[in-house]
Amino acid sequence: MDSLLTALTEALYGNFGLALLASVAWGIASILLSPCHLSSIPLIIGYLTSTKEKKTSRAILLSFVFALGILLTIAIVGAITAALGRMMGDVGLYGRYAVAIVFVVVGLYLMDVIRLPDTGVRLQTSKSRSFVWSAFILGLVFGIALGPCTFAFMAPVLGVVFQISNTNVAAAGGLLLAFGLGHCSVIVVAGGLASPVQTYLDWTNRSNAVLWTKRVAGALVILGGIYTIYTS
Length: 232
Prior knowledge:
Blueprint: H1 2-11, H2 16-32, H3 35-38, H4 40-51, H5 56-83, H6 92-110, H7 128-145, H8 147-164, H9 169-203, H10 207-231
Helix pairs in contact: 1-2, 2-8, 2-9, 4-9, 4-10, 5-7, 5-9, 6-7, 6-10, 8-9
């Protein structure tokens, strides 16, 4: 694994096409190799299950909006913390505790242990537009906790971006975009696969399997919150 990550880092300093591919790979690695980010997979699957969304195209859209919310928050938090002279993405101890509490609450909701109050923005609603809006907000909140984890994987890409940003802004932006695409792709693929699986489970009349899928996803989200507290 160390050899692979070293090779990806060295590829960032090669020709631009190779650097773009390496940035995409770093974005994918930021999900697959990070326990913090991996919790986004059960979170989006649990969300899609709670909305009973069975159209693959809609599931992909909701997953993309969720991932977009994550990236937007990460960018904002990174800019603010850097301006304050702190490590990029470091929201502080209390900030991470607050997000961990949100994870636990959402996890308990997915497990049907608690009900969320009617705040106007719910995880489960009958309106398609509200689905999209809720997925985006869920991504925004989730992204707060991912700052330190994200920038740890993003550091090699940022190193190159900072070097070339003064002479080639387009190339620097391309590398950041490539990282974002790689990061989002894993979430979108997971969400896209959740829809046909749910349809199959309903088709075989095993509705309990759908229920337990949501509960297992909720339990994994809670573990993500506990992990956030533990690593704080």
